[in-house]
Amino acid sequence: HVDATMQENLGEIRRGRDALVAHEMEIVLRYGSMPVRKVERFAINGKLVFINWIFEITLPSGEKVAFDEVSMQEWEGDRIRHERFYYDPSQLTR
Description:
- The protein is 16% helix and 46% strand.
- A six-stranded mixed beta sheet has the order 2-1-6-5-4-3, covered by helices on one side.
- It is an alpha+beta fold.
- The model has no long low-confidence stretch (mean pLDDT 90).
């Protein structure tokens, strides 16, 4: 949605599709491609969707780490209205 929101853990809520896409592009520029492993755990309850994503991230040191997060999405029609990510940030500071 044009007015979608996204939040990382307890961080600031980002608003607006253009800002959300710009933030995701910054992540790709910082870490390069982030292949996702097969999604094996998810739950759907009406318009709420929970997905356990596991990405492979290459840290600036060159070390590859598995980044494990849970996404909680609230859908409206065929688009995400709100999304919030839950993860342990120490995964990125090994």
